[in-house]
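Format notes (please read before filing issues)

Several people have asked whether sequences and structure tokens are stored in separate files. They are not. Every record keeps both together, in the order shown below: the sequence lines, then the token lines. Line labels are part of the format and must not be stripped during preprocessing.
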Amino acid sequence: MAAVRGGDDGASGWPTSAEKARRLIREDQVAATFGCWTSASRKAVKPVFEKNRSLLFHPVQYAGLEQSPYIFCSGATTNQQIVPGPAATTSSRAPPTRSPRRTRRPTA
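Then the structure lines:
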């Protein structure tokens, strides 16, 4: 099985998104789809993916609360959210938790 990048654009039209999803699943026989930029388009294609038992990965950060075994709302990817967090807390550029005392060492 190969990964193929498709170029179908629902043009922010919910009926168009559902029809293009139907075509991708039935005619092109894709195993999984990554897409649907808006929550409204995700809701429009939900019945299509559920009826055809096909997977939709919805990679939008502020999406969620979807209850479907065929739709995964992934949010930001690991490199966008999880990895920078610990790095920022251990970085020398991270703000200190308290002000360090600055003392001058005597020069000899």
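For reference, the curators noted about this record: The radius of gyration is 23 Å. The beta strands are 32-34, 55-58, 71-73.
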